[in-house]
Write a structure and sequence with these properties.
By secondary structure, the protein is of the alpha+beta class. It contains nine helices and 18 strands. The strands form five sheets. The protein has an eight-stranded antiparallel β-sheet with strand order 1-2-6-7-10-15-16-17, with helices on both faces. Strands 3-5-4 form a three-stranded antiparallel β-sheet. The chain is globular. The chain binds adenosine monophosphate and magnesium ion. Adenosine monophosphate binds next to helix 8. Magnesium ion binds next to helix 8.
């Protein structure tokens, strides 16, 4: 998921940088980070903030903590217990984890059913086969896929809040929080800034955008939604506050024999979801937006509309053929 891959980084950079339309005159302070969540993270502030560097340092520390806790690909540094550790202990013993990791998993479990079970953090065994496929360019073996799907039962994830432990009852089960980690971490940053009374910041973590207060007094942030071709913006959304998150099939995918396979997998089939090129969510919180964008990428539009309504979320669906549709109140401007 976030093993540093140069190509992925460059493509992500191209995707992320055109997201914002500059507003004439105002001084723009910004910082880019390249070493978290296998993506590019940008922090922007147009307000004159003498503390900008210090605020960015705190933002970075918070994001880095979640990056380390959620990493499933690399063994953690000494003193850190991560999802890598939890996965390695599947079927062996409950693992004492950082309270932040337990809370993240509880959040996912609590939301999954309301999102049609289209996103499941216990789907790691299947997701890792598709991850390897993207690295090797070879489709997963059908038998291996069928077997992996039998090791994804959400009931085999045991979260013990009192003991502070996580246990995977099934030895072959693996957790993967790629659908939520960035958005969850960014929302915790937003909470931190609100607590500190800091506003006028915007964070973009690889397509997970969160505005904390308006750009300047009375001025909204203008967030471009990139066209699936990546060539130009499809349109833009203006927000004073809140989250805009896009899940797209266009920068992390597998291509075999001219057919492209997205990195978002439909749990009802074990195969990549292929209805849409992208799904963009506008909702107050970034953690919900991140889960919703992945879930709605999987769900048929009508089901997605029902889910979105429950969360008071606005949605833009871009179908694989380029046609688009959106919820009634989405202030999306072409
Ligand atoms: P996002 O870019 O936020 O839509 O998340 C995509 C990532 O979520 C993938 O790279 C996988 O790690 C993970 N993922 C894909 N499909 C699913 C699924 N159905 N349930 C849970 N996680 C998924
Ligand atoms: Mg997501």
């Amino acid at each position: 998921m976030w093993r540093g891959r140069w190509l992925c980084f460059v493509l992500t950079l191209l995707l992320v940088l055109p997201l914002f339309v500059a507003c004439g005159g105002a001084a723009r302070q910004s910082k880019l980070y390249f070493d978290l969540f296998d993506t590019v993270i940008e922090v922007i502030c147009y307000r004159e903030d003498p503390d900008f560097d210090a605020v960015c340092a705190r933002i970075y520390q918070t994001l880095k903590a979640y990056h380390e806790l959620c990493d499933i690909y690399t063994a953690p540094r000494e003193g850190v217990v991560s999802l890598y550790t939890v996965n390695a202990s599947a079927g062996v013993a409950p693992v004492q984890v950082d309270a932040r990791l337990l809370t993240l998993l509880q959040f996912c479990v609590a939301q999954q059913a309301s999102m049609g079970n289209a996103v499941q953090v216990t789907y790691g065994a299947v997701l890792s086969l598709w991850h390897t496929a993207r690295e090797t360019g070879v489709l997963p073996d059908a038998e291996a896929l069928a077997d992996a799907r039998t090791h994804t039962d959400p009931n085999d994830l045991v979260l013990d809040a009192e003991a502070g432990t996580v246990f995977l009852r099934d030895p072959a089960m693996r957790l993967d929080v790629g659908a939520i980690a960035k958005g969850y971490a960014v929302e915790r940053v937003a909470e931190m800034l609100v607590d500190e009374g800091v506003d006028g910041y915007l964070i973009n973590a690889g397509g997970n955008v969160r505005a904390i207060g308006p750009k300047q007094a009375g001025t909204p942030w203008r967030v471009d939604v990139t066209a699936p071709s990546g060539a130009s913006a499809l349109g833009r959304v203006e927000i004073m506050e809140g989250a805009i998150v896009t899940s797209g099939a266009y920068y992390r995918f597998l291509e075999v024999d001219g057919k492209t396979y997205s990195h978002i997998i439909d749990p009802t089939t074990g195969m990549p979801a292929e209805r849409y090129a992208s799904v963009t969510i506008s909702v107050a919180q970034n953690d919900l937006a991140d889960l919703l964008s992945t879930a709605l990428f999987v769900l048929p539009e009508q089901e997605g509309r029902r889910v979105a309504e429950q969360y008071d979320a606005q949605v833009l669906w871009v179908y694989a053929d380029g046609s688009t549709t959106e919820t009634d109140d989405f202030s999306f401007k072409r």
